[in-house]
């Protein structure tokens, strides 16, 4: 595992809810990242940890390799990859995301 993959692994496993995004929860830098934050707020998540991939090109590429997922944002709950904003929205609308967050 490379240094970048190790750093990502520690972030993913070190936080119950981890979102790799463009910008921050307070200032999202793209619509998809903003939507991801809004969905998590709507689920009542108050322990959200975020990482701004725009500040670290190695993590920006590394996170895509880590999950074998080409886009950002990426949500991890309880150390497991959940998906991007489209999957988050589908799961939120069906109630699956709320259940997953409640269990983690």
Automatic annotation (TrEMBL):
Transmembrane segments: none annotated. It holds the Pfam family Glutaredoxin. It comes from the Bacteria. Residues 17-82 form the Glutaredoxin domain. One of its GO terms (molecular function) is metal ion binding. The keyword Magnesium does not apply. [2Fe-2S] cluster binds at residue 30. Keywords: 2Fe-2S, Iron, Iron-sulfur, Metal-binding, Redox-active center. Belongs to the glutaredoxin family. Monothiol subfamily. This is Glutaredoxin. It comes from Inhella crocodyli. The lineage of its organism: Bacteria, Pseudomonadati, Pseudomonadota, Betaproteobacteria, Burkholderiales. The gene is grxD.
């Amino acid at each position: 595992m490379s240094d970048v993959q190790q750093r990502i692994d520690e972030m993913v496993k070190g936080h119950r809810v981890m979102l790799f995004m463009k910008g921050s929860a307070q200032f999202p830098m793209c619509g998809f990242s903003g939507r991801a934050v809004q969905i998590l707020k709507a689920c009542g998540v108050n322990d959200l940890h975020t990482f701004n991939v725009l500040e670290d090109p190695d993590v920006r590429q590394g996170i895509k390799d880590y999950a074998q997922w080409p886009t950002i944002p990426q949500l991890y709950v309880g150390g497991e990859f959940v998906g991007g904003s489209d999957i988050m929205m589908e799961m939120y609308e069906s109630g699956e995301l709320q259940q997953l967050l409640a269990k983690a």
